Each structure stands twice: as C-alpha cells, then as structure tokens.
TrEMBL record:
<dbReference type="GO" id="GO:0005739">
    <property type="term" value="C:mitochondrion"/>
</dbReference>
<keyword id="KW-0694">RNA-binding</keyword>
<dbReference type="InterPro" id="IPR012677">
    <property type="entry name" value="Nucleotide-bd_a/b_plait_sf"/>
</dbReference>
<feature type="domain" description="RRM">
    <location>
        <begin position="42"/>
        <end position="127"/>
    </location>
</feature>
<protein>
    <recommendedName>
        <fullName>RRM domain-containing protein</fullName>
    </recommendedName>
</protein>
<dbReference type="Pfam" id="PF00076">
    <property type="entry name" value="RRM_1"/>
</dbReference>
<dbReference type="InterPro" id="IPR000504">
    <property type="entry name" value="RRM_dom"/>
</dbReference>
<dbReference type="GO" id="GO:0003723">
    <property type="term" value="F:RNA binding"/>
</dbReference>
<dbReference type="GO" id="GO:0080156">
    <property type="term" value="P:mitochondrial mRNA modification"/>
</dbReference>
<dbReference type="InterPro" id="IPR035979">
    <property type="entry name" value="RBD_domain_sf"/>
</dbReference>
C-alpha cells in the first residue's frame, strides 16, 4: 500500500525527528519514489497552515520570492481557504506567481519552513479535475 507523499511529510514533520533538513530529505526521497511528478505551475499549493493564518500573512511570507517591480511584489493571488462557518483557515491555501521561476523560488524557499508556528509545505498545485471525474482514476471502484 503506497502512502501519499504529503502524508509522509506531515508525519515526519510532527514525529520525533528533530532536524528539519533530515526529515525534509527523507520526505522528498519517498515522494519521488511513489508519486508521479506534478508538472510545474505558477500556482503553489501550501498545506500545514495554522488555523489563524490569514491571506495577508501568507502573502507576506511568500512575497520575498516574487517578481519585484518598483518595490511591489507582483502576485496574481495569495489566498487561504477558510471555513464558511468559523472563518478560520482550513489549513491550506494557494499562492500564484507571475512566472514559473518565481513559483519555483517560492516553493523551494518556503517548503518545510515555519509560518505562524507551524511547519508548512509548498508544492506545485495540481490542475483541477473536471466535475464527475475522479482525481485518482486507479482507485475508482465503479469502472468496469
């Protein structure tokens, strides 16, 4: 049974491993073995966010890796997904850069780093699946 790479990284970040670098290297090694690579994208998926992290804090954290023009960082979007009832973060968000190079710098710079006291993980966002299709077709039990 293969585990999703995100689960392995989450386990390693919260377990007895004291060194972030060793946990991150173990997680990246296991991630490269089991999952197909996600194609590079200007949009990053950020997980492991604190429930009180806001879109503004996410923007500030990733701003140092973006394209700078006249002192302003050019983002298309930095958004924390929130619960409608409580207004708190659901623990993940998306950051969109203007170029692939900036997205790669942001992903490498913020992956396995602390934000609001929690270890966050940044990776390229997967494209949305069309409605009615499974995101994981190999696990669909109802196909013949």
């Amino acid at each position: 049974m293969a585990l999703r790479p995100g689960l392995v990284r989450r386990f390693l970040s919260t377990s007895i491993f004291s060194s972030q670098s060793s946990a991150a290297s173990i997680a990246s090694a296991s991630a490269s073995d089991s999952a197909p690579a996600v194609p590079p994208s200007t949009t990053l998926f950020v997980s492991g966010l604190n429930k009180r992290t806001t879109s503004e804090k996410l923007h500030e954290a990733f701003a140092k890796f973006g394209e700078v023009d006249n002192g302003n960082v050019i983002f298309l979007n930095a958004r924390v997904v929130t619960d409608h009832a409580s207004g708190y973060s659901k623990g993940f968000g998306f950051v969109r850069y203007s170029t692939l190079e900036d997205a790669e710098k942001g992903m490498k710079g913020m992956d396995a780093q602390f934000l609001d006291g929690w270890v966050i993980f940044a990776e390229y966002a997967r494209p949305r699946t069309p409605p009615g299709q499974s995101a994981f077709p190999e696990t669909n039990q109802f196909t013949s």
